[in-house]
Write a structure and sequence with these properties.
Blueprint: H1 5-8, H2 14-26, H3 36-50, H4 55-63, H5 77-98, H6 106-128, H7 132-155, H8 161-182, H9 197-200, H10 206-222, E1 226-230, H11 239-243, E2 246-247, H12 257-263, H13 286-290, E3 293-298, H14 302-305, H15 307-310, E4 317-319, E5 322-326, E6 334-338, E7 342-344, H16 347-350, E8 365-367, E9 382-390, E10 393-400, E11 404-408, E12 416-420, E13 423-425, E14 428-430, E15 434-439, E16 445-450
Parallel strand pairs: 1-2, 1-3, 7-8
Antiparallel strand pairs: 3-5, 4-5, 6-11, 9-10, 10-16, 11-15, 12-13, 12-16, 14-15
């Protein structure tokens, strides 16, 4: 399971461990009124975070729809940390109000046994990795801190609430010192600021600046394009948003299943490896062109990532640590296709699971429900111009000569709406993952906007603003 060290390596502090094992489990604090819900959340998020370390995740992954498209297991640690914080708050609050609630003796022995087991696991893990000598100092220090915490809690066993409140403040101080020693400024919770400098000042990075300038130069002539950036490290996941380009990969908390099947795109673009899908079988493929994938920026030459496609591309631009390939076959974001040049779209193609034919996408389209045709007129269907474009909002000017399909290469999602000359028209699946709307002579303007299906906040939709 690959993930950032700051996610997979957690250090909650010894107070949290004692509160969970002794006050929570051994002395029954987890089943008390204030702890039950966060304890359940803690358990569920822990199971998810362990991933294939438990049989439960594998079962969920293979049987529950959507689990394989949601989040990597390690990201459950965000919820786990929140739940653990609530459990610690609840158990220490119970301690302040009631002291060491629960029967002494066996419960204390059970708490000691849990801690000794945890300590043994730490020693065993260090030994199995050949790091026992390096681990002994932090393990010994953690043991000393734990003894201090237990001593403080025992000191409030028979005292009143005021004494236990002072003990609680002492535990806060111990936690601050504990976390300050083990985590502040370390790789567990912080990266070198230089790691993120490309996001704060992309103009200072020659590659980021080159991608931005080249993409903007192409868009000024050809309209919106998409870019793929592969293999440049974690901070580059979000660079496309900072420099204003659309990335086919990126870093997505939740992904569209059809898009994953069609492109083979996994969760992120961190490693210089690329798996392809049923429709984007490589960088030289119909879906790559339909996506408008105009620039492909790779950390390694394409021959090492997609050798079957490399020969189809012009010589790349070599810039510092990148190979930049231009795809002259990229299809515009919107095209006008004559009605008699439309071919039927198969259900598997609409779901991203069936290959697309290699057509001239400037003259032909796959349209859901289109009848097969034997005759095709050579007359041009008309002209279109993208008057304005931003994410979720496209406005086009049309000059339609005969009934045609306006094919818009935005990914099909619930919430897209289109109006032609101010009146709504239905969208139909087209070219696999995309959409089209029927247009006719005298149609002059089309507007396509995106919002959740319940969204009713666009009263000016179609008024030309």
């Amino acid at each position: 399971m690959g993930a950032d060290a700051s996610i997979t390596q957690l250090y909650a502090g010894c107070v949290a461990v004692v509160a969970l094992l002794w006050l929570g489990i051994a002395r029954g604090g987890l089943v008390s009124a204030g702890s039950r819900f966060p304890a359940i959340v803690l358990f569920v998020s822990l199971v998810y975070a362990l991933g294939n370390g438990t049989p439960i995740f594998g079962m969920l992954h293979s049987t529950v729809a959507g689990v394989d498209l949601f989040r990597r297991p390690a990201d459950a640690t965000f919820i786990l940390n929140l739940a653990l914080s609530l459990v610690v708050l609840a158990t220490t609050d119970r301690y302040v109000k009631s002291g060491l609630a629960g029967a002494p003796g066996r419960s204390d022995l059970a708490g000691a046994a849990l801690f000794v087991t945890l300590l043994g696991l730490a020693v065993a893990a260090a030994w199995s990795h050949g790091r026992l000598n390096q681990a002994m100092a932090p393990i010994s220090l953690s043991l000393v801190i734990t003894i201090v915490i237990v001593g403080l809690l025992l000191a409030g066993r028979n005292g009143g609430k005021n004494r236990r409140r002072w003990i609680l403040w002492a535990l806060v101080a111990v936690t601050a010192l504990d976390l300050g020693h083990f985590t502040v400024g370390t790789w567990l919770n912080a990266q070198d600021p230089k790691y993120y400098s490309v996001l704060e000042r992309p103009e200072d990075d020659d590659l980021a600046r080159a991608i931005r300038d080249q993409a903007q130069g192409i868009e000024a002539k050809e309209g919106p394009i998409r870019v793929e950036m592969l293999g440049f490290g974690g901070a580059w996941h979000n660079l496309s948003m900072v420099i204003g380009v659309e990335n086919t990969l990126g870093y997505n908390p939740a992904r569209n299943g059809s898009y994953v099947r069609a492109t083979g795109a996994k969760q992120n673009s961190n490693a210089p490896l690329r798996s392809f899908g049923a429709q984007m079988t490589g960088y030289r493929s119909p879906l790559a062109d339909l996506l408008g994938l105009r620039l492909i920026v790779l950390r390694r030459p394409m021959e090492e990532i997609d050798p079957a496609s490399a020969a189809a591309f012009p010589t790349p631009t070599r810039l510092s640590r990148a190979w930049i390939y231009e795809n002259p076959r990229a299809v515009p974001r919107a095209v006008l296709i004559a009605e008699d040049h439309a071919l039927p779209l198969a259900p598997g193609q609409a779901k991203g699971s069936e290959a697309l034919p290699d057509l001239d996408w400037s003259k032909h389209a796959l349209i859901d429900g289109a009848p097969p045709t034997d005759t095709q007129s050579q007359e041009l269907p008309g002209l279109l111009r993208i008057a304005s474009y931003r994410a979720g909002d496209m406005r086009l000017e049309l000059e339609v000569k005969r009934p045609s399909w306006l094919v818009i290469h935005e990914l099909r999602q619930p919430g897209w709406e289109v109006r032609v000359d101010g009146k709504p028209r239905p969208l139909v699946p087209a070219n696999g993952l995309f959409q089209a709307v029927k247009v006719f002579p005298d149609d002059a303007r089309a507007e396509k906007r995106f919002g959740p299906p319940w969204w009713v906040m666009w009263p000016e939709f179609g008024d030309g603003k």
